[in-house]
Amino acid sequence: MSQPVECFPACPPSTPVQVPGPTGVNGINAFSTTTSPISLNMPAGTPVNITVVNGQWVALGEVLFISDQTNIGHFLVIAAPQFPYTTIQAAYYPQTTDTIGGVGVNIAAGAVVTPGAYNGADGYTFLSGPLTIPGLPSPTVVFSVYSNRGIGKGMVLLLTDGTNFAHFLVNAVTGTQTVNATLVYGYNDTPSGNTINAGALVGPSGEDGFSSFTFLTGNLKLPSSAGKLAIAADTTNNIPVFSSVMFAIGQPVFVSDGTNKGNFTVFAIPTSTSIQLTWLDSAGDSVAGDTIISGGISSSSVTNAAKVVPMGNPAPSAAAIWSDPSGGEASPPLGYVVTGVTASANMGQSGGYTISGGTLQNVGDSIEFEAWFKFLATGGTKTIVVNWAGNAIFTSAALGSANGTILKVSGRIVMTATGPNLQNCLVTSTLGGSYPTSSNAGASADPSLPQQIQILLTQTYLTDSLVLLYFMAKLLPG
Questions:
Q1: Which of 15, 227, 278, 359 is 20 to 30 A from 238 in CA distance terms?
Q2: Are 162 and 226 in a shared domain?
Q3: pTM to 2 decimals?
Q4: Does one domain contain both 106 and 135?
Q5: 132-165 pLDDT, tens per residue?
């Protein structure tokens, strides 16, 4: 083995020489350009072959952004490119910033293809295909959108293409583009049966407040007489409606399909989509046995459905403005027919009104009455008396009202197991305050005597000092 040579004197220092290696291969660009146009006339999720100059850099699952500087699209790679790397298999997944697709909409050849990413969850998206607005009885639909990432269960969505529009309540979202939703009728929404076109804006919306009216969702048959419950198509008394949230028990309502109609009061609210209605058989109502048709079942538009609307208490079936004939005015009719009873004027020294013919046969039968008097003179002592079967069952306190004062008396007589019984009798005045009974308001009359109610205004001076303005009475079977 050779031995190191020692220099004497010391050797000079050595200088290293660097020799370059061979030149490496150029890297691959992380972008390319298309060699043929790409049609955007397809729904989200559609597979498409994208031809490029070089797709060797593309990986399975990568999101591609492609733009020809005019039209834009996003695509998801569904298969890794194979040699010669000129074809990319991808699926069309448009984003809210992309060009809205349609017939004749293309990304031109020569467009730039680069790595991309999905947009963040926008507060809106677009409808992928046309949607026919549903109606009753099947208001729930499934439709596709570009992306459902910003949509959640319980949201209210507005879908609009600028011409047709409707509101929907989201039931569920599935996959990345599907929405299951139920139509909620917004104010002035486009009628059912119209089409909202593809590309329509889909965005969050507030649900309309509850309307003061609703629609029948099933037919309503008028019962055999006033005071009985309306009959549904299934022969029960639960009348189906779109919503019952706007009603209260005892509330007067009017129901009409444009041909048949009726006045009712709300008797019960069994569910959020049904009500029970007591028929009043008011002036202008259709006759017993007629059916109010729910157009919502067979119509393409909910606006054609029969409506249930709140209203004031209906007036009696004929004019009821009378005055004492001794005052020189025209004599009032002596026979005035109201529901179930016959009324006749009885204006004497004790001016009043008599109702006869109302028969309380069964426990629960009742007569409801209401009368309005107007004083034409000041002074004297006035008292309201209600007679039943010849017996005074209500006597008010003394009334000292002035000329022009209007007095109202109202109440109800109900047949009980022990006979007719006066309930809730009240006298009120336009001067304010009320005049309670000075006798037992719950007094029962002798059921063996003729069944007749008489409302009297007693007074100590001439009969032309009062006018009977209004009278209403109804016999309501139990």
A1: 359
A2: no
A3: 0.35
A4: no
A5: 998 767 789 999 998 888 899 989 999 999 999 9
Residue 272: the pLDDT is 85
Q: Quick one: how far is CA 380 from the chain centroid?
A: 55
- How many CB atoms sit inside 10 A of residue 64's CB? 23
Question: Is residue 413 assigned to a domain?
Answer: yes
Whether 288 is in a domain gets the answer yes
Name the domain boundary from 74, 90, 115: 115
pLDDT in tens, 57-71: 999 999 999 999 999
Positions of E strands within 207-362: 214-215, 220-221, 231-232, 239-240, 252-256, 261-271, 274-279, 291-292, 307-310, 336-338, 341-346, 352-356
Residues 277 and 257 placed together within one structural domain of the fold: yes
**d(C-alpha 464, C-alpha 419), whole Å:** 36
The arithmetic mean of pLDDT across residues 241-269, rounded, is 87
At 442 the three-state DSSP class reads coil
Tokens 């009120």 sit at which residue?
A: 428
> How many folded domains does the chain comprise?
4
343: number of Cβ within 10 Å: 26
409 and 427 Cβ atoms separated by less than 8 Å: yes
Please say which residue of 66, 88, 115 terminates a domain: 115
**Are 472 and 329 contained in the same domain?**
yes
Task: For 8-24, give one letter per residue: b (16+ CB within 10 A) or e.
Answer: eeeeeeeeeeeeeeeee
Residues 455 and 330 in one domain: yes
**pLDDT 10s digits, 71-80:** 999 999 999 8
Q: Which domain holds residue 270?
A: 214-310
The DSSP bridge pattern shows strands 231-232 and 239-240 to be unpaired
